[in-house]
Amino acid sequence: MSGNVANDLRVWELVRRYAVPRWMIERATERRLAGDWRGACAAAHIDVDIDPADLTPEIEDDLRHLAPDLLRWHLPRDHGGTHIAVRRELVLGGYGGAVLYAATPRARNAPQIQRLRLRLDRKAPGRYRPADPPVVREDWSGLRHLWDARRAGGLLDHHGPGGRLPFLRPDGVPLPEGELPTADPRPGDPAARSEWVFLLRERGDLDGAITAAGLTAVEPRGRPGAWRTMTLVRHGLATLDLSLLARAGRSLAGTARVRADVSSRHCLVLERVQGRLTLSAADPRDVADVPVLPEPCWRTPDPLLLRAGRITPEELHPLVRAALFPARPPAGPPPPAPLAPVRIRCRGERHEARWRGGRLDVPHPAGEHERERALRALGGTMTGCFAVTEAWTSGRGGLPPALEALREEIFLRMEHGDTPGVLRLLEEGVDPRVRDGDGRTLLHLVYLADHEVLLPRLLAAGLDLEAEDGHGGTPLYRAVLHRASAGCVRALVDAGARIDVVNEGGWSLRDLINTHRYAHLYFLRDRIAAEHPGLGRGLPDETGGDG
Length: 547
What we know:
It is a single chain. The chain is an alpha+beta fold. It folds into three domains: 1-159 and 311-334, no CATH class; 169-299, no CATH class; 438-547, Alpha Horseshoe (Serine Threonine Protein Phosphatase 5, Tetratricopeptide repeat), CATH 1.25.40.20. The chain is built from 21 helices and 13 strands.
């Protein structure tokens, strides 16, 4: 397996582990079963933007059976990362002149990064809507098994007939290598046929895999980026399922062409030409008017993660597990595991460190701690246990693998708004002064989580409101830049965060608010104008904004 392919699976493993935490699934399910669809959406971090006057019995019936946590599980992700893909509008249903859709965030690092919106739009769905950059609409109305609890059992059929997923037995146990096909299997075994297509790709025979899937490859045309798309498909996109893509093409109704956006700069175009299904690479700019094929129609991370042993059937979303492996017990993504002692190489020995009271307790007497601090103050280099504790709080230097994984976990839980998960780690004794490789502290990400809970906790632990990340940004600066809520910004300011900060380019908070027209933050802009006139680049104050 190439490094790029392994990285693709690694990213999806992180998505499955952190993007939809177990508590979110449980709370959303409890509210849905109680008939409280708004509460279910709130539990799944979905903002509802629907005028009650627009609700009809048909729409309300669909909303009562909406499983927002299941929708979140299947959302397309930012290429190469765990965040939700931005600027997408996923059409869930049409009701006369109204359209119900879920809108993903407009910006990658905004707090809405883990929010969706449900709205009724009286305009008919379009391929692109006026926006800069454009918003892409995808038709999920025929994919109810991805968001409607009544249809969730249809997920297995989505992967193809045959009663099992590729590479897996019906109970979810991976097939041994000896039971995988060694030649093109008969068409009557769709799962084995999909396995064969995957195996051809893994052996480097992309052309053979495309043919075996029932597709005809067409030479790329247009911009040079089209050629690089096939390189990406050949070497890096492990979760691309050519068999699933071909089935989607055969089911096209009234649309001769669709495109699969395999990255922000690469796409595949599926076209029905004289009874054949052709597959070609293209630059997205050359096919901007071609409808987008939803990602679940060409990407299948879960079977490949199960095959690789990166997750277990029990760790799938319970509705997914019930559809694919009904005999397996439900569980969901795992919560934070109990913290184990950390082994550190120090002075030719292996020392065992433990988390206690929000600090990594290393087995050295107080005198050695004092000497190391003095050495650091004089510009010396710390080693062993002391170098590890310094790396944890500075973001610079290496960490043992266990601590590297723990740091990744706590930042991913912050990024995905998993406040209960972060609190559990802190209660286990993890040092909240951690910094990542970009120099960010947990305060720099507090706008992505529940600031009312975490901000007091982090300040009480001694985190600095004026700490700068690797780009010179303070927590308040990052919150404003990435469109934090007014409540979070007010909380940071009320806690004492300076409002007169500027970045390396001379941009003040007032400049940021005016540039992005963050109307919900005009209260801060006006205060800065009154208290610090002339600060920053002096951009004129806006009067409108997106709120």
